[in-house]
């Protein structure tokens, strides 16, 4: 079975969030199941050296104003199809934003081009490889099913995965023609979203199957509070919508072998975590003394992640004797809020503004608990890393957070199945209560140690979910065979 993945990021090559982790991991998890998955993604500067070694398999003289080609290569256990179009992707800095912090003004052309070329490849554009199914991810690949609809002749069926419905790829309708999109598709049932072209909406309207990254988010998406205007369409397509929980790459995130830790450890030697903890305290200028837990945050600093609520709860966290280490970047007021909190609570709150992959591993290895107070969270990966590293997740009861953490309530504690703390509603007082509950648990060392062991044994790999994706691909192929 041959599957074409289409996405805008892929770890370890280029990453702004969890999408990259998923795209870098799923093809590897599908390989042992007999699935030949290839990932198409753009050649940003970080990928140029790799692309230079690739084999040219497709070319165009003019893709939105410049030449383009597709290069086939292998790296990090992945088969890649790299879309090299320097006029669209050879730019410094963030892959979505210019230096001014605004979206690149030609993002419609950039990711429209990615989807267009993916559709060309899917419809037989390569001489030696033709996918049976195309699996598009998020708005950046949302137009793939629309372009395939416009083709005469046989095209493969499509799956669209929603990683985050808050990012929809909305553009001016005057671009329909230059993007090569049929005006017949610009309808409320198609890709029109309140007077604009919706790239994600196009994918949701025209893909054969839709998935999202947790069962709870799949249900939430059909509600107005979470569906962001697409809840009606998703309700109409309920029969084709499945929630498949994300996993994590167990090799990249393994406390026994993680090169970013000062002391690797396992479920049999959790006490070694102490050396990593000491290193985190040092890196964040936190006091070594004190008996409370060390909480961490590793996150985009955005409204989605609910970190304004943490700013409100911080005085209580510090008063209770806990410490906090924050690594993240994003909205300027949140960055400023956390910097101010570090100044107000020297030794108890440490903040590093930025993006630092090795430091994020060290923090998972050295913290006692990880805080994730998201207002919505399609899946979330940092709580899964937390479980694997025995860093107990303290999470809002929403989306994938609700599906992956077992709250330490009385029933779960007596049944010996708790792995963390959940709270609802997603408000500052409820978060404060969750922090207090966590501190109380931390004061009971044997209870805490048992939770750590349980968390570290909790299955967080891709096995079950990779099989679920394969089943969806197989069902699409079976449906085609029946039609023929
Ligand atoms: P989202 O994709 O919504 O940002 P996820 O929890 O799915 O949330 O994934 C976030 C990913 O990005 C995780 O791998 C996390 O470790 C990583 N990450 C987030 N912020 C930072 C940061 N400042 N430095 C390093 N890694 C980060
Ligand atoms: C999105 C979501 C996050 C999810 C990730 C990978 O960025 O915000 O919850 O884990 O995609 O699917």
State the gist of this model.
With 484 residues, the chain is α/β, with parallel strands linked by helices. It has two domains: 2-247 and 463-483, Glycogen Phosphorylase B (Rossmann fold), CATH 3.40.50.2000; 270-457, Rossmann fold (3-Layer(aba) Sandwich), CATH 3.40.50.2000. It is 38% helix and 19% strand.
Can you walk me through this structure?
The chain is α/β, with parallel strands linked by helices. The chain has two domains: 2-247 and 463-483, 3-Layer(aba) Sandwich (Rossmann fold); 270-457, Glycogen Phosphorylase B (Rossmann fold, 3-Layer(aba) Sandwich). Helix content is 38%, strand content 19%. It has 19 helices and 18 strands. The strands form three sheets. The protein has a nine-stranded mixed β-sheet with strand order 3-4-5-2-1-6-7-11-12. Strand 16 (369-372), helix 14 (382-388) and strand 17 form a beta-alpha-beta unit. Helix 1 packs across helix 19 (463-483), helix 10 crosses helix 13 and helix 11 (307-319) runs parallel beside helix 12 (332-344). The model has no long low-confidence stretch (mean pLDDT 97). The structure holds adenosine-5'-diphosphate (ADP) and alpha-D-glucopyranose. Alpha-D-glucopyranose is lined by residues 17-19, 22, 163-164, 213, 246, 377-381, 400.
């Amino acid at each position: 079975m041959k599957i074409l993945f289409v996405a805008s990021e892929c770890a370890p090559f280029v990453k702004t969030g969890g999408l990259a982790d998923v795209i870098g991991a799923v093809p590897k998890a599908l390989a042992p199941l007999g699935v030949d998955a290839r990932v198409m993604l753009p050649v940003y500067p970080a990928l140029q050296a790799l692309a230079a070694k690739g084999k040219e398999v497709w070319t165009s003289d003019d893709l939105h104003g410049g030449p383009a080609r597709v290069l086939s290569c292998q790296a990090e256990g992945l088969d890649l199809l790299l879309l090299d179009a320097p006029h669209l992707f050879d730019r410094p800095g963030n892959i979505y934003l210019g230096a001014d912090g605004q979206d690149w003004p030609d993002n419609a052309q950039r990711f429209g081009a990615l989807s267009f070329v993916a559709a060309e490849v899917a419809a037989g554009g390569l001489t030696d490889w033709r996918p049976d199914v195309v699996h598009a991810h998020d708005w950046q690949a949302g137009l793939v099913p629309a372009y395939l609809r416009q083709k005469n002749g046989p095209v493969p069926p499509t799956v669209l995965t929603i990683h985050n419905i808050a990012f929809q790829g909305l553009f001016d309708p005057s671009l329909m023609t230059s993007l090569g999109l049929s005006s017949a598709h610009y309808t409320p049932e198609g890709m029109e979203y309140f007077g604009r072209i919706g790239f994600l909406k196009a994918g949701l309207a025209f893909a054969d199957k839709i998935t999202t990254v947790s069962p709870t988010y799949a249900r939430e998406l059909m509600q107005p509070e979470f569906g962001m205007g697409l809840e009606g369409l998703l309700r109409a397509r309920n029969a084709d919508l499945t929630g498949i929980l994300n996993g994590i790459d167990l090799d990249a995130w393994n406390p026994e072998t993680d090169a970013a830790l000062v002391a690797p450890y396992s479920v049999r030697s959790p006490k070694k975590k102490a050396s990593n903890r000491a290193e985190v305290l040092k890196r964040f200028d936190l006091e070594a003394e004190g008996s409370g837990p060390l909480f961490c945050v590793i996150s985009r600093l955005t409204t989605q992640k609910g970190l304004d609520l943490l700013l409100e709860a911080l005085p209580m966290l510090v008063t209770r004797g806990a410490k906090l280490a924050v690594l993240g970047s994003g909205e300027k007021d949140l960055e400023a809020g956390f910097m101010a909190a570090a100044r107000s609570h020297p030794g108890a709150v440490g903040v590093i503004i930025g993006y630092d992959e090795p430091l994020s591993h060290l923090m998972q290895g050295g913290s006692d608990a990880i805080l994730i107070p998201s207002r919505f969270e399609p899946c979330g990966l940092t709580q899964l890393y937390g479980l694997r590293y025995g860093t107990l997740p303290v999470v809002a009861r929403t989306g994938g957070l609700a599906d992956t953490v077992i709250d330490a309530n009385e029933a779960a504690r007596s049944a010996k199945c708790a792995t963390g703390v959940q709270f609802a509603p997603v408000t500052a007082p409820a978060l404060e209560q969750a922090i207090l509950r966590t501190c109380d648990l931390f004061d009971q060392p044997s209870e805490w140690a048992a939770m750590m062991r349980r968390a570290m044994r909790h299955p967080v790999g891709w096995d079950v979910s990779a099989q679920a994706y394969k089943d969806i691909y197989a069902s699409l192929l079976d449906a085609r065979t029946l039609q023929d």
